[in-house]
Amino acid sequence: MGNRDALLDGATACLYDKGYARTTARDIATAAGVSLAAIGYHFGSKEALLNAALERAIEEWGDDLARSLAARGGNAAGGEAFEQAWTAVLASLAESRPLWAIQFELIAHIERTPELRQSFADATRRARLELAGIFGTSTADEATAVRVGALYQALLVGVVGLWLVDPADAPSAADLLDAFRTVASGFDG
Question: Start and end of every HTH tetR-type domain (predicted)?
Fold first, then answer.
């Protein structure tokens, strides 16, 4: 493993252990087993490295979720596909709690950190298309897929927030499906 990969691994470990704001460049260099200068050489700044590590961790979560859904058998459609996807998401939260806690921490820093805002905005746009696919909504129109992905993203952030506060009281996949059906039935007529 080269210094760049070691830095990403070290930064991820520090993010999970200390969070974004409390992680220092020295913490990362120590965790990675490299010099402080390596951070500047490979990433330009500690913040750029932390952003790259966070982006990689989020992508890995999405890849793991997609694999989990594929292993469950991707033949479901409609409500069954929705419920299967949310069951997998909720199961993943226990394993990825630090990842989600970090993202909520970063929301407070976005106002004062333009590069963090840009990094989050870029990742958010990419995630919308992926979320539409993960949750089983296929559409030939990319603009529609982005809107549907934004709905799933908003729901995901809300569910994760509820889960971080009180996992025992967060909605289940069945609860979410029932709520969606109830809301959608009000749109008829």
Answer: 1-61
